[in-house]
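Supplementary notes for students who missed Thursday's class. We covered one full example, reproduced here. Read the sequence, then the structure, then the short commentary at the end.
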Amino acid sequence: MRASRFPFPPRRLLALGLAAAALAGAGIFHVWTRTRVVVAGYQLARLESEHRRLVAERERLELEVTTLRAPGRLEQYARTRLGMAPPAPGAVVAVGTGGGGSGGAVVGAGSARTGPAEPASRVQVALTAAVGR
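Structure (token representation):
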């Protein structure tokens, strides 16, 4: 028999090579998955921080809307910015349709029922002028 130059037979060398490649592949896979977990952790922390910031901003905006809708604030805005004032006494005339009409306060019925605001027609203005004399 002839002595071989390699201390291991080729089959055994192939098996050792495959085992080393499998171990190297498992090690690389492990490192890759760990880096993916770390990256996902950083993304999660960033998103949680952004969520907290957005929730705080939403609460601030809800408070701002509530403040701006307050009746006192609206009155102040109407007086200062829009130059509005309460109507002079006698400047408001209630015009009704008589019975079961579609809005407005009914004159002389003693009711405080109000409906949607509607523009006065020429007939209603003429009737108001005639009744007001």
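Commentary. Residues 10-68 form the longest helix (59 residues). Residues 11 and 17 are 10 Å apart (CA to CA). If anything here is unclear, bring it to office hours.
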